[in-house]
Amino acid sequence: MKKILLITALGLSFAFAGSVSPADNAQYQKECASCHFGYQPALLSKASWEKVMGNLSDHFGTDASLGKVESEQILNYLVTNAGSGKITANNNTMQITKSPYFIKEHRKISAKLIEQKEVGSLSNCMACHTTADKGNYSERAIVIPNYGRWE
Amino acid sequence: MKKTLCFILLAFTLIHAKEFNAPMKTYMEGLSAEAKAANPSFTGFDAKRGEAIFLSKHTGKKGTEISCTTCHSTDLKKGGQNVNTNKPITALAPSVNSTRLTDVAEVEKWLRRNFNDVFAHEGSALEKGDVLTYIINQ
Questions:
Q1: Which residue has the higher pLDDT, B8 or B80?
Q2: Taking the model in full, what pTM does it have?
């Protein structure tokens, strides 16, 4: 019995691997995802989101400034749903791509596949993770342009 | 009779396409008063001047050439693409995208952001009014 439970638990943990809660906040979608992919809050730590939201007028070289009220509401959404654990471990920068876990997971992707125009950079999740917008980054849903499935 | 009706409808659509809604009119009047205060010889906003601003090329924060058209393209009736993220941008022309220039808060937000990115300063009332007059006529 214990064994069955263990196997079930193990199976469940695998099933959930590569998934985060979708970014289902309408205001976040409107204000942030109008310019770029709506990165799920769980992909960065609370400290990281505070840094991002603290400097929106120079957001990776672009003015993405918001009104005070909108900014506070979005920060609240992000920190309430911020990530913890392996995805954000040892990464309090503003970039998801600086997370050691993220780097490890993408280490086998060649520069050629990343730099091609269909992808451009590792920050373009949807280019290969076909269900990234649903928070699903599982290997089964990966299709790399000019390469194919990654399994 | 049918023809006349068609003409009236057409004329109405054309006029309608160039009209700001009430909150936007109030906003434009505010810009107008500001422009007049800055320069007493100001007589009104001008779509031609706005177009020139829209097409003018500058050196952006990243050292590369940038203009409004970098992301919005030169045909406002067609969509554009964010130059940094490649995310599509819907058409700016109100004649094909009726939601454009209807929400004062949205207009203020994007003018502030985009003027800073392209021109490295927040637009003056004259510049903003001219650009909006250019876009509303598209």
A1: B80
A2: 0.84
Locate B115 and state its tokens: 């003027």
CB pairs under 8 A between A and B: 36
Query: Which residues fall within 8 angstroms of residue B58, CB to CB, at 6 or more apart?
Result: B65, B66, B67, B118, B119, B120
Nearest-neighbour CA in chain B from A115: distance (Å): 13
Contact B82 A65 (CB under 8 A): no
Q: Is residue B10's pLDDT more than 80?
A: no
Q: Is the ipTM of this complex over 0.85?
A: no
Confidence of residue A12 (pLDDT cuts 50, 70, 90): very low
Query: Is the distance from CB of A141 to CB of A148 less than 8 angstroms?
Result: no
Q: Which of A102, A109, A104, A105 is nearest to A88 (CA)?
A: A102
Give the DSSP per-residue string, chain A.
-HHHHHHHHHHHHHHHTTB------HHHHHHTTTTS----GGGS-HHHHHHHHHTGGGBTTB-----HHHHHHHHHHHHHT---STTTTT--SS-GGG-HHHHHHTTTS-HHHHHSTTT-STT-GGGTBTTGGGTB--GGGBEETTTEE--
Name the minimum distance, in Å, from the CA of B75 to any CA of chain A: 20
DSSP string covering B15-50, please? HHHTPPPHHHHHHHHHHHHHHHHH-TT-----HHHH
pLDDT in tens, A68-114: 999 999 999 999 999 999 999 999 999 999 999 999 999 999 999 99
Q: B51 touching A, CB under 8 A?
A: no
Look up the CATH architecture of domain B2-136: Orthogonal Bundle (1.10)
pLDDT confidence bin for B61, thresholds 50/70/90: confident
pLDDT of residue B131: 98
